[in-house]
Amino acid sequence: MKKIFSFLLTLFLTLYIVGCGVSCRTVSLSTTPVIDKIQQRGTVLIGTSGDYRPLSYKEPETDDYWGFCLDVAGEIAKALNVTITYVPTSWPTLSADVQDPTLFDFAIGGITITDTRKETMDMSEGYLGNGKTILCRKEDVGKYTCQEDLNRPEVRVMVNPGGLNEKFAREKLPDCTLIVYNRNEEIPAQVAIGNADVMITEITEAPWYIQNDTRLAAPLLDQPFTRGEIGVLMRNGQEDLLDAVNTTIRRMKADGSLKTLHQKYGLVYVY
User: Fold this and answer.
1) How many Cβ atoms are within 10 Å of 55's Cβ, its own excluded?
2) Domains of the chain
3) 228 and 131 in contact (C-beta within 8 Å)?
4) Chunked in runs of 10, what are the mean pLDDT values of the chain (271 residues)?
């Protein structure tokens, strides 16, 4: 009986030690600093929609990415001493994609800092002021002098799906005729040719379109319906990466390089 008891005790202790070893190894792997993993990989994986000029845009013919936010991403990658690999995401899938650790390290490109996002994810400090406004045809400027002018059944309001533009329209313009159009970068042209009357957009995006399409106007550019900031979005538990991103943003504000980027893209500097 004593031999059986001794055998069982030995077996139990052996399994416990092995199990503890596996558990300890698992914890060690899961707590490896994110930046170490990125630097071992040699590239930071960045999710971006590529449909938001001049903040993040992917040229359809060449697949080249450019934009204000991507220039900020370049500074972050430089601070990490790695290259960048852009990973496509979309506004409807953004939150789910950010929280999937197999896709990318963080997302950037016109992402507004909101309390809702911060409930389940982390957001950096802001690096660009923002707010909701509209694009319309130049000949219709006199029709839209305030938000109430949009909230009418005869006004066709076009938005991209899944983002804050659609959320704003559904909450604040319940009486308009809402049109959800899948390709954000094509909506200004849809307004210009008359397939919609108004596009809900941002004060960061509207100036680029009115400068590049003489058919369009942004009559409420100086009177945004909302005010906020744009930042970097990432999943929880990446404190070292979040700290590195914030350090880069603070450095760019301090040394004037962020202001220079605003001037390059014709954006208003508020810091």
Assistant:
1) 29
2) 34-129+228-265 (3.40.190.10), 132-217 (3.40.190.10)
3) yes
4) 45 43 36 89 97 94 96 98 98 96 97 95 97 97 96 97 93 98 94 98 92 96 94 97 98 98 90 89
